[in-house]
Amino acid sequence: MTDQSLRLPAEWEPQAAVLIAWPHAGTDWADRLASVESTYVALAAAVTRFQQLIVVVADETLRARVDSLLKQAGVDPGRVRFVQLSYDDTWLRDSGPITLKDGHGAFQLTDFRFTGWGGKFGAAQDDALVAGLVQAGVFGTATHKRIDWALEGGGIESDGAGTVLTTWRCLVQRHPDQSRDDMSAILRDSLHASRVLWLDYGYLEGDDTDAHIDTLARFAPDDRIVYQACADASDPHHDELQRMATELAALRTPDGRPYRLYPLPWARPILDEGRRLAASYANYLIVNGAVLVPAYDDPADDEAARIIGSAHPGREIVQVPCRPLIWQNGSLHCITMQLPAGLT
């Protein structure tokens, strides 16, 4: 395997499994554990219709509880694998492995430094998660490459063909002493990308990640980009998301064509004790043959699902209730990490 042959697959490429970590009373979900577990059960039921699910649990007691919950929901136990490890929180999009692959069936687990989104939260156990999964034998013969540079999986999007999309707001917060050129070079080198596209605009209130790209804009097959829009001129997000839409319209494919843009509707404001929660429809998860789409008990849910489906033709669209997740400032994509086919 040569370094030059590695690439970061697109999410819509074939997958082996989806990786999650189950919430428990020792995580930030403790105050609303029952409601968030209902979302995790719905997610597990949806994923296992299409492929394997790997569930990280903190101890044997939790494993038994999750096993019981999933069996009650009719989940096929043959499609669930448990791994026991310690973790601070359950946002595996950001603490899980970013997997590169080559053309010969070999994989590299790229393990960036996880800092709890720039030191906002304790993250020592989460930063060790990839190494723990490797030690547990989850990834077979894949190589494990630790990179001492802060990056979360939710902060990057890949088209599978060498283009990475990211946001300046996030990465300048993580690396305030580095220039855009410096960071572009690091991303190209570590992810074996040919180019990096940057968005300067876009954010969601209630977002701890400093504008992760997976809450804002997502690559889809055939040079499509699905993005979170806001048509309500009275909403505080309106101007910023309009500017982001303008930036997206100006992006070009490697052969110079504009991307095909799919704007998503805007959910009504969801508040928690006066705090606006980050309800993004762009935070969906692609699995084999389907797209799992966040639903927020909002009138826009069905239209968002329709648009996402039109950008991913040929896949079943499955809505997953995600309102409990945004209480902790994330959604469906944030709690999951897909693993490419052949890795496990």
Automatic annotation (TrEMBL):
Pfam families: PAD_porph. It comes from the Bacteria. Gene3D superfamilies: L-arginine/glycine Amidinotransferase, Chain A (3.75.10.10). Keywords: Hydrolase. InterPro entries: Peptidyl-Arg-deiminase_porph. This is Agmatine/peptidylarginine deiminase.
